[in-house]
Write a structure and sequence with these properties.
By secondary structure, the chain is an alpha+beta fold. It has 15 helices and 23 strands. It has 2 domains: 71-304, Pnp Oxidase, Chain A (Roll); 334-448, UbiD C-terminal domain-like, CATH 3.40.1670. The strands form 5 sheets. Strands 5, 6, 7, 8, 9, 10, 11, 14 and 17 form a 9-stranded antiparallel beta sheet that branches. The protein has a 5-stranded mixed beta sheet with strand order 19-20-21-23-22. Belongs to the UbiD family.
């Protein structure tokens, strides 16, 4: 699907009566977040707030990713796996290893109309500060107002790959904000490369109000090394239009607002607390400070925000869509993988259920290790491996598999002192924590010590005979 910008998307949804315009005066302090959370829980369409207390020149849009159907609308398809499959089909006949194929993605994708293109900006420089942005205070004990769905854009100083990510950003004053990029996030890793080169002022742009396809890409686990603008071009079917800022950062030329500046790695300040997607306040910790140099706005700008908290909120549906889009990538890396389920109540970085085609003893543990070594799947605390005939999206089938295949001493693997999500408050010393893997597959003789018992099955002739009787009963007694 191709939207010119956020306004084009709003027009698209308005024509389908799928924008809820709220003309009552609302406050960025708690009120907008409360309305947004309730709307998301009810799967209501996006909310457009037209009267913001103390921010008369702005509108705010929230709840863009209100359900899995919202992703279908934005991407123009409900077959999300086909997106990854079509991309990887380019490599089907190439005699390359899995690693070589992944490394070849960027060069292959630079061909064609999906390549980013330079364009004149629709925004212009203006004299405003960070406090002039209608950022939200989401929960009562949050440390202040935060950008919750602004895009942080950096460039790798070695590869020049553009990274577009969503990090929360706490406003301190008109010129400074705290950048919450965790050590293993791309922005932070790029910053480490700058620091190795003796550069402590990392060029950064904070962008808000873009085509929702770009916004979705920013929050997605795009394979490492792949330029996110390129991937957004794949999803859009058309290259992203970009403008280069004075600090060398490329930003979408149709953005509603752009804040140009740098992150000062020598200036670390206490950020938080913040009520995050785990449903708890993350305690204060030290992160580097972003320092504003210039601000650009479109006329009558629209601010995009989200409200986080206990699932399922917007991040749940972004995660579920990412699960489907990137399943083909996971299958390429782990050939025996059949399907995966990252349950929305498992927070997408906590619990993962995977089905495999099992061919040899010990295979489930081998797959666990592969998953823990693969991109953002490496953050999973709980991995459950089941056989190929188990529907990973049916929790009852998964529970049955665990109940009938698992001996805890033999089939449960616990690893300590390994990387988890930094926001995980259950760990004593985050981001280090522990992980658990459960092998809920049927066991080979080498694993069990004897042959696996035979499963019960009905007699086929009896089934054929009684089927008509069952049909009569169903017609008579079932609604």
């Amino acid at each position: 699907m191709t939207f010119e910008d956020l306004r084009d998307y709003i027009d698209f949804m308005s024509k389908r009566n799928k924008i809820i315009q709220i003309d009552d005066e609302v406050d960025v302090n708690l009120e907008i977040a409360e309305i947004t959370r309730r709307a998301t829980y009810m799967h209501l369409p996006p909310l457009l707030f037209s009267k913001i207390k103390k921010y008369e020149n702005w509108k705010i849009i929230t709840n863009i990713f209100y359900s899995i159907n919202s992703i279908y609308e934005i991407l123009g398809t409900n077959n999300l796996e086909s997106i990854g499959e079509n991309l990887l089909n380019n490599f089907k006949d190439m005699p390359l290893s899995t690693i070589d194929k992944i490394k070849s993605l960027p060069s292959m994708l630079k061909l064609g109309k999906i390549t980013p293109k330079l364009d004149k900006p629709k925004f212009k420089e203006t004299n405003v500060g960070l406090n002039d942005f209608p950022a939200l205070k989401t929960w009562p004990k949050d440390a202040g107002r935060f950008f919750t769905y602004s895009l942080t854009i950096t460039k790798d100083p070695e590869t020049e790959v553009n990274n577009v990510s969503v990090y929360r950003i706490q406003i301190i004053n008109d010129k400074e904000a705290i950048m919450h990029w965790q050590a293993f996030k791309r922005g932070s890793m790029a910053a480490s490369k700058y620091k190795e080169k003796g550069i402590t002022k990392v060029p950064v742009a904070i962008v808000n109000g873009v085509d929702p396809v770009i916004a979705f890409t920013a929050a997605s686990p795009v394979p490492a090394g792949l330029d996110k603008y390129l991937f957004a071009g794949i999803l859009r079917g058309e290259g992203v239009k970009l403008t280069e800022l004075d600090n060398g950062i490329l930003v979408p030329s149709t953005a509603e607002s752009v804040i140009e500046g740098y992150v000062d790695l020598n200036d670390m300040r206490l950020e938080g607390p913040f009520g995050d997607h785990l449903g708890y306040y993350t305690p204060p910790d030290y992160y580097p400070v972003f320092k504003l140099e210039k601000v650009y706005l479109r006329d009558s700008p629209i601010f995009h925000a989200t409200a986080v908290g206990k699932p399922p909120l917007e991040d749940a549906w972004i995660g579920k869509a990412s699960e489907r889009i990137f399943l083909p990538f996971a299958k390429m890396i782990i050939p025996e993988l059949i399907d995966m389920n990252l349950p929305e109540y498992g927070l997408f970085t906590s619990i993962g259920i995977f089905s495999i085609r099992k061919n040899y003893p010990g295979q489930a543990r081998r797959v666990m290790m592969s998953i823990w070594g693969t991109g953002q799947l490496s953050f999973l605390k709980f991995i459950i491996i089941v056989d190929s005939d188990v529907n990973v999206h049916d929790i009852n089938q998964v529970l049955y598999a665990i109940s009938t295949t698992v001996d805890p001493v033999r089939d449960v693997l616990i690893i300590n002192g390994i990387l988890n999500d930094s926001l995980d408050h259950t760990s004593a010393n985050p981001p280090l924590g522990s992980k658990i893997g459960i092998d809920a597959t049927r066991k080979f003789k080498e694993e069990l010590g004897r042959e696996w018992p035979e499963e019960v099955k009905s007699d086929e002739e009896v089934v054929k005979k009684i089927n008509p009787i069952i049909e009569k009963i169903k017609q008579q007694y079932l609604p």
